[in-house]
Design brief:
By secondary structure, the protein is an alpha+beta fold. It is built from 9 helices and 17 strands. Helix 1 (19-33) packs across helix 2 (45-69), helix 3 runs parallel beside helix 7 and helix 7 (332-345) packs across helix 8 (352-362). The radius of gyration is 30 Å and the shape is elongated.
């Protein structure tokens, strides 16, 4: 039952107020006192003052209701607010994911049989957009004749975009130091960065001969050892990436004066999507900056020889499939679902649901649907389907899928997974 105060208003009556109802209330109160009369005449000074007060309170109440609704997980609808809320759960929203392209590679007879390595960040230019190798790619040519490079084309993909070099950051050496990467275009809008293609290199200037080392991303610093050279990366509420380092208890802490170099894949969004056959006969270019050349020297193992431009020109690259679609950053609804699933799993991969959530969260740009089942579901569902079709002995069938019936019933396994590239 509503409780009324001296103003004859219920305790929660403010939520029903708008400018007109508040103006009516003020006018009624003034008429009750029989002191002022100008409030009843539109255009009078007192009436104008009442309008200002009523509409000012209308705006304040709007912000009160809006901020109250956006402060809880279930009712928040703005990206900025839900991003802040899920930070409590240690959930990192997924950002934009650039297009990906599969390819075929064919080596000419003039390329000698040997083992070669294509350096990271090497790229092709296709119709004004670039497709890039996101890591060092090692492959072998086994003959001195024309050869299809199976191990190169089946184990690697090209990612749409070109790598950018963020200015060197000098560490101040505090625990859990955060480096925020701010990148905007001419319109002061955040540029499109692929969420899964950012690399961090650190030069420890406290040692006698400092060299660049590549540090690795981690889901959570609290899962790491004190000397682990790792960092957390988070897309914050402003659409900018934050790189968080450890404190020498959970993850290695940056030293004062350490240099941090960040490389990121800048995407062209939907404009970077291409069709089949456009990669044909395009030249491979090598990424080249003064700082990166030093990093490449420090981080490339001595037993690896990088391919030369002349050798790379003797390899033909083609694509028979279109690139995958560009994927926008996670929506508010997606964050609400994935954050709860991730928190529930606690970064483990044990149950079928854990596997499904992990795949859909991290590979949504190339996978359309995923199904993970445990042993008993596999027997009662998948194998039963074959028996119902009349296949009495699936393990004797020649097709490879029918032979996968030996398994340990004490563990949860992914028995089958449908991975469909989006058209």
């Amino acid at each position: 039952m509503a409780t009324f105060n001296d103003f004859n208003l219920s305790k929660d009556g403010y939520v029903a107020f708008d400018a007109l109802s508040l103006k009516s209330l003020i006018t009624t109160r003034l008429n009750t006192n029989n002191i002022f009369t100008d409030q009843n005449f539109e255009g009078s000074n007192l009436s104008s003052l009442i309008d200002i007060i009523a509409y000012a309170y209308h705006v304040l109440i709007f912000y009160l209701n809006r901020s109250a609704a956006e402060s809880t997980f279930t009712t928040a609808e703005l990206y900025e607010n839900i991003n802040k809320i899920v930070k409590i759960l240690n959930y990192n929203p997924i950002g934009n994911q650039t297009s990906i392209l599969s390819f075929l590679a064919n080596a000419q007879a003039s390329l000698p049989a040997s083992t070669y390595t294509i350096p990271r960040y090497s790229y092709f230019t296709v119709n004004g957009v670039s497709y890039t190798f996101n890591q060092d790619v090692t492959f072998s040519k086994n003959t001195d004749t024309t050869e299809s490079l199976i191990n190169l084309q089946e184990s690697n993909l090209l990612y749409q975009g070109t790598y950018g070099e963020y200015p060197t950051y000098i560490a101040i050496g505090e625990p859990y130091e955060i480096v925020t990467m701010t990148l905007v275009d001419n319109n002061n809008e955040n540029i499109i960065i692929d969420h899964f293609n950012m690399d961090v290199y650190v030069k420890d200037n406290t040692i006698l001969t400092p060299i660049w080392e590549k540090w690795l991303p981690t889901q959570s610093l609290f899962l790491e050892r004190s000397n682990s050279k790792v960092y957390e990366v988070r897309l914050n509420e402003n659409g900018r990436y934050e790189f968080r380092f450890g404190n020498n208890v959970t993850g290695k802490q940056l030293n004062r004066g350490d240099e941090i170099a960040i490389y990121y894949l800048k995407s062209d969004g939907t404009r970077g999507e291409i069709g089949p056959g456009l990669l044909n006969s395009n030249k491979l270019f090598f990424y080249n900056t003064q700082r990166f050349n030093q990093i490449q020297t420090d981080t490339t193992p001595s037993n690896i020889t990088l391919i030369t431009a002349d050798q790379a020109s003797q390899i033909g690259f083609t694509n028979i499939d279109s690139s995958t679609p560009f994927v926008e950053r996670e929506s508010v609804d997606s964050i609400k679902i994935n954050s709860l699933n991730t928190f529930r799993s606690q970064y483990r991969l044990i149950t079928a649901e854990d596997f499904t959530n992990y795949v859909l969260k991290n590979y949504s740009n190339i996978i359309s649907s995923t199904v993970a089942v445990n042993n008993w579901d596999y027997i009662s569902g998948h194998l039963k389907y074959y028996f119902d079709l009349g296949v009495a002995k699936p393990n004797y069938e020649s097709r490879i899928l029918f032979n996968q019936v030996k398994f340990a019933d004490s563990s949860i396994l992914i028995m089958y997974m449908f991975m469909l590239y989006r058209n």
